[in-house]
């Protein structure tokens, strides 16, 4: 699960946890009042209750500091990980009538220059990720004469497009079901108040809270109860763009015969996977550790292939009745990974993105993901940011930008590669109009000549 914070212009940096929580609760209540339809209002209030619980935990974790104590972390103990080769190999197909396949379909394909859901990106032979996923389940049903339902968890970003796309599968040998994950409000970093003022606020003022939301969203949608009534006991969950995530009859059999409630597929970590999540032993319990939770001084240790040799594939097998139990009993205590983006405003207003139908699309000319941008305290408030950078520079070829101190960027500036601008205390750096900075460090009170 995640909390998404952005820049604001109110100063409540030292607000206590209780005050911040009370302000958030009042704001969420006001948001709920903007929903007119009684049924929709009830669903919205449930979502906001879930968000508030997450927000309250975020405040508590923030007050306590890093929630993960590195000294208590160890590689998985013996018995916590089962070797695939030790599973039974009878491949019993009789358990398929207890199974549903669920794909996480909330992501957009902007990082790959694609408009719309990432799942519709063409992979090969004219087929998209979604096409291939449907064909996998269709083949399973046809081969074994079963009816494994195919479920998509969409987000508000992908729902409409997906609803139109899946119409082409009507008549295929697969039952396609959909539900939406939650829509949570972004919050201002300094005031800790929600950005949207009404339920109809701009789509950019909301965010989908991450894959961990699957449990509560599946429950709140009513689909979980329908699956249980249908006799579905197990859900196989994976990312829609993971074509290696296929139904493995040996794992399915192991899941049923051991009465397991939760199984995560792991693979050996390679040097290409060092930043991905790994499995750890945390005082006798198995936990997933992401790099965002690791103290900076232990990052290299986290990346170690020798100490943490497993990589989380995000392929998960879950028991439906167990999901229902943990949600109803409030037993879910997933880690919160805050997304703090003080440079969001600069990114979204730059040539790195274009806006179409209210959605941000990554410029197809961009190679790779978004650049890393670090802005100092002089850019903390929106008003200061707009004063110092009245015209967003071109950053389509930027890899890394750091700006600290009294720095002003004028119109027509272009930044490429790695650019570091540091104004020492008491000095000012003005970057003149039309300047092109590429792989440079600007320090002190230097002034650049105009081009």
- Cα Rg: 24 Å
Named CATH topology of the largest domain: Spore Coat Polysaccharide Biosynthesis Protein SpsA, Chain A
User: How far apart are the first and last residues' alpha carbons, in Å?
Assistant: 47 Å
Annotation field: number of helices: 11
What top-tier CATH class of the largest domain fits best? Alpha Beta
CATH homologous superfamily classification of the largest domain: Spore Coat Polysaccharide Biosynthesis Protein SpsA, Chain A
Overall tally of domains: 2
Indicate the CATH architecture of the largest domain: Alpha-Beta Complex
Q: What is the percentage of strand-forming residues?
A: 25-35%
The helicity comes to 25-40%
Mean of all residue-level pLDDT scores = 82
User: What oligomeric state do the depicted chains represent?
Assistant: single chain
What's the count of strands?
A: 24
With strands numbered from the N-terminus, the spatial order across the biggest sheet is: 7-6-3-11-15-12
Low-pLDDT residue spans: 8-15, 356-360
Written description of the protein model:
It is a single chain. With 451 residues, this protein is α/β, with parallel strands linked by helices. It has helices at 17-32, 38-64, 129-144, 159-165, 214-220, 223-229, 249-257, 299-303, 320-328, 344-349, 382-388, and strands at 4-6, 73-74, 99-105, 122-124, 127-128, 150-154, 176-180, 184-185, 187-188, 206-207, 234-239, 262-268, 278-282, 285-289, 310-319, 339-340, 353-356, 359-362, 372-375, 394-404, 406-409, 414-422, 428-431, 436-443. It folds into two domains: 70-328, Alpha-Beta Complex (Spore Coat Polysaccharide Biosynthesis Protein SpsA, Chain A), CATH 3.90.550.10; 342-443, UDP N-Acetylglucosamine Acyltransferase, domain 1 (3 Solenoid), CATH 2.160.10. The strands form eight sheets. The chain has a six-stranded mixed sheet, with helices on both faces. A hairpin with a 2-residue loop joins strand 13 and strand 14 (285-289). The longest helix is centred in the N-terminal third of the chain and has 27 residues, at 38-64. The protein starts with a strand and ends in an 8-residue tail after the last strand.
């Amino acid at each position: 699960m995640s909390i998404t914070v952005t820049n604001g212009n109110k100063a409540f940096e030292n607000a206590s946890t209780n005050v911040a929580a009370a302000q958030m609760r009042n704001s969420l209540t006001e948001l709920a009042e903007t929903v007119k339809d009684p049924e929709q209002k009830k669903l919205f209030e449930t979502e906001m209750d879930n968000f508030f619980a997450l927000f309250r935990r975020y405040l508590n974790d923030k007050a306590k500091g890093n929630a993960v104590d590195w000294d208590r972390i160890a590689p998985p103990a013996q018995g916590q990980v089962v070797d695939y080769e030790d599973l039974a190999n009878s491949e019993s197909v009789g358990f398929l009538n207890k199974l549903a396949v669920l794909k996480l379909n909330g992501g957009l394909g902007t990082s790959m220059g694609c408009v719309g859901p990432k799942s519709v990106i063409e992979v090969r032979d004219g087929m998209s990720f979604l096409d291939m996923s449907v064909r996998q389940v269709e083949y399973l049903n046809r081969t074994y004469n079963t009816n494994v339902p195919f479920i998509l968890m969409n987000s508000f970003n992908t729902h409409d497009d997906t609803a139109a796309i899946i119409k082409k599968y009507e008549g295929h040998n697969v039952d396609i079901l959909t539900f939406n994950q939650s829509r949570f409000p972004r919050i201002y970093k300094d005031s800790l108040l929600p950005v949207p003022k009404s339920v109809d606020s701009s789509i950019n003022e909301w965010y989908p809270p991450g894959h961990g939301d699957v449990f509560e969203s599946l429950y709140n949608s009513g689909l979980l109860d329908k699956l249980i009534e249908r006799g579905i006991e197990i859900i196989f969950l994976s990312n829609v763009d993971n074509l290696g995530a296929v139904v493995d009859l040996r794992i399915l059999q192991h899941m049923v015969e051991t009465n397991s409630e939760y199984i995560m597929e792991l693979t050996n970590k390679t040097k290409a996977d060092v930043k991905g999540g790994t499995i750890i032993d945390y005082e006798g319990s198995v936990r997933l550790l992401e790099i965002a939770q690791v103290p900076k001084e232990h990052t290299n240790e986290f990346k170690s292939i020798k100490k943490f040799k497993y990589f989380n594939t995000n392929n998960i097998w879950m028991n439906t009745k167990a999901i229902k139990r943990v949600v109803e009993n409030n037993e879910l205590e997933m880690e919160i990974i805050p997304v703090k983006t003080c440079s969001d405003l600069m990114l979204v207003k730059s040539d790195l993105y274009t806006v179409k139908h209210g959605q941000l699309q990554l410029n197809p000319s961009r190679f790779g993901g978004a650049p890393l941008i670090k802005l100092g305290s002089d850019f903390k408030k929106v008003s200061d940011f707009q004063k110092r950078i009245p015209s967003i520079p071109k950053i389509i070829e930027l890899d890394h930008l750091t700006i600290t101190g009294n720095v002003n960027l004028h119109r027509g500036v272009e930044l490429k590669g790695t650019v570091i601008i540091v104004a020492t205390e008491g000095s000012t750096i003005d970057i003149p109009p039309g300047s092109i900075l590429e792989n440079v460090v600007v320090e002190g009170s230097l002034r650049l000549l105009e081009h």
